[in-house]
C-alpha cells in the first residue's frame, strides 16, 4: 500500500494581506473584502472536458483525497486540502483543476495555512513583493464592434421570432504587453477598486466577479443572480436616479426574472426549502449597477452525496450567461457569437474535502497568455434590446479589466 501524503492545516497569526502573499508564477486567488483563499505551487493538476466534466472533476478530486493523510486543527469550510477550479463555458472546451502546494486562508479573525508534504510549515513573506508592471496596447477581438452589433441585431430578431426569450452574447478584446504579464498588479487593482467582488486567479484566468454562482456550506446553498445593468456616472444624485430607473425598467426586470427563474428551478430538486425574494435589489459597483437577487436554500438531508459538483452540474450555464431556455440559447450562441469563450463565463472558485465550496461565474475577466491578455464582456439580449445600447453596456463591463491593466 503506497504511503499517504501528509496534508497539514494550522492556525497562523498576523500576516500580510492575502494578495501580498502571492508569487509571480501561477498565483491562485479567491478573495473578497480581504477574506478568502490564496495558493501557490502545484501539488497536482489536470484538465477535464465533455458533458460529464463536473463528474470527472469530482472523481479526480476524490482520487487525490484518497492519497492524503489529513491533519486539520482548524476545521470549517476552506480548511484542509482545497481544489481550485476554472471550468469552461462550453462543455467541449478545457476546464482546469489545480491543487496548490500551499493555501493560506482568512475568514474574520481566523487565519490558517494548509500545506502538502512532510516539510515544515512554510514561512510566509514578511514584506510586500515588488511587482512588475507592463504597458498594454489594445486591439480588436474576435469581432469588430460593427460586426458584433450585427450579431446582436440577429439575436434580437431570433428572440422576436423563435421560442427563445433571452440570449447572452459575449465579445472580447485583446491587449498586448511589452513584457511578460505579472497577474498580481491586476489582482490588487481589482481588489482595491471592487472590494465587494470575488477577485480570482486560476491558471492565467484573472478577474473580479460580482456574481456568486454557488456557495455550499454545511447544507446551506446561496446563489447570487445578476442580470440587468446600467452604467454609473460618478455623480451621486444622478446615480440614485439611474438606480431607480433600473429598478423600474421592464426590459431589465424581464431579463432578470429569466435569470432568477433559471437558478431557482435548478436548485429546487436539491433543496427542502428555497427562498426567492419577490423583487431584486440594486447592487452598486464602482462602474455599473446591477439588478441582483440572492437565492438561498437548505439541502434535502435525506439525499446523499449532494456536493458543489452536483450543484454546478445543475446551475451551469445559468440564464445570466447563456439565456432562456438554456438549450435553445446555447445553440444560438454557438451559431452566431463568433468566438470561443474559453473559461470566460464558466464556474471559477474552490471546493474543499467535504464537498463544500464557493464558486462564481468568471465575469469581468481576462485570460493571460505570456504577453497578451484577452478580456471579455457579455450582454443579455431580449426583445427590447438595441445593438448600440448593448455595445455601450459591454464597454462599461470591460472597464474593470481595462482599468486594472493601466493600474
TrEMBL record:
Report the EC code(s) recorded for this entry.
5.4.4.2
Keyword Transcription assigned: no
* Source species, domain of life: Bacteria
Q: Does the keyword Protein biosynthesis apply?
A: no
Q: What reactions does this protein catalyze?
A: chorismate = isochorismate
User: What keywords were assigned to this record?
Assistant: Isomerase
Enzyme class, top EC level, equals isomerase
Q: Where is the Chorismate-utilising enzyme C-terminal domain?
A: 146-397
Stated family: Belongs to the isochorismate synthase family.
Q: What is this protein called?
A: isochorismate synthase
Species: Candidatus Planktophila versatilis
